[in-house]
Amino acid sequence: MRTVYRYELPFIAGPKLAMPAGAQVLDIAVQGERVWLWALVDREETEMVDQEFLILGTGQPVPDNRGVEFLKTIHLPSS
């Protein structure tokens, strides 16, 4: 059965999330002071894989050798 799960995406360099194999990222957004990721997952999938994410600020270089795929622009609240 497929279900939408929410994961907190830590605002650190190269965060990794353990997600069921085949998980599909649906959205990334800020709620409060945290960054969240929603993914469509198969609840019956037992294989877990570490998905690595790259969070970059405006003007930061994008590594050429990491197979980077753009997912979303997020806007953090001002302090």
3D structure, described in words:
With 79 residues, the chain is mainly β. 0% of the residues lie in helices and 43% in strands. A 3-stranded antiparallel sheet has the order 1-4-3, with no helix packed on it. Strands 2-5 form a two-stranded antiparallel ribbon. A hairpin with a 2-residue loop joins strand 3 and strand 4 (34-42).
Order of strands, main sheet, comes to: 1-4-3
The gross shape turns out to be globular
- Overall residue-averaged pLDDT value: 89
Tally of individual helices: 0
Which spans of ≥5 residues are poorly predicted at pLDDT below 50?
none
Tell me which oligomeric state these chains represent: single chain
Amount of helix: under 10%
- Listing every helix as H and every strand as E from the N terminus to the C terminus, the arrangement reads EEEEE
How many beta-strand elements? 5
The main sheet comes to: 3 strands, antiparallel
Query: What is the end-to-end distance?
Result: 41 Å
Whole-angstrom Rg: 14 Å
What fraction of the residues are assigned to beta strands by DSSP? 35-45%
Determine the structural class based on helices, strands and strand pairing.
mainly beta
List keywords for this structure.
79 residues, mainly beta, 3-stranded antiparallel sheet, two-stranded antiparallel sheet, 5 strands, 0% helix, 43% strand
Give a short summary of the structure:
The chain has 79 residues and is mostly beta strands.
